[in-house]
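Posting for a labmate who doesn't have an account.
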Amino acid sequence: MNIDELKIHSRKIKRQAAALLKSTELLDILNKFGETYLIGSYPLDVMWGPDIDIIVKSENIKKSSIDALQEIVDKKLFRKIEYGDFVNFPDGKRPNGYILVLKAVVEGVKWEIEIWFLSDISKELNYHKFLESKINEKNRNKILEAKYSRETTNTSKFELSSYKIYEQILGNVIS
């Protein structure tokens, strides 16, 4: 694929993401439970795969995550929902919080939305702001090429995450 085709694909995926967020009113729901932020490829405008990353800052992350989960279940918005507890079951690679993973199909494409409920979002927001400060059109193109290469070489996101791609292209992470 040439860069123009990669950009067309990225715009199509972003349109699907926007349609999914709008049709489910997911951000409105999440805003009831804390300060909600879209992070990652959607706001950076480097979408490739069908996934969206969201963080929700809340004082009581357990209650917020469970109440959000209940509302999403009650509204029947997603075909599959997973809930993770990384407070009582910490994993050094994951934030200290609760996660909802929502699954849906848009235009025949399987989507995944990760929503982290965190009491301290400074690390995630600072990192996202760092990425925003470094990104430009040339870097966007390189990121799309890297994501396409990851897909066509059957490299998993566990082997080469989007954040590793961002670091390779945009520079080291700030702490």
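Reply:
Got it, the structure tokens are right above this. Residues 3-24 form the longest helix (22 residues).
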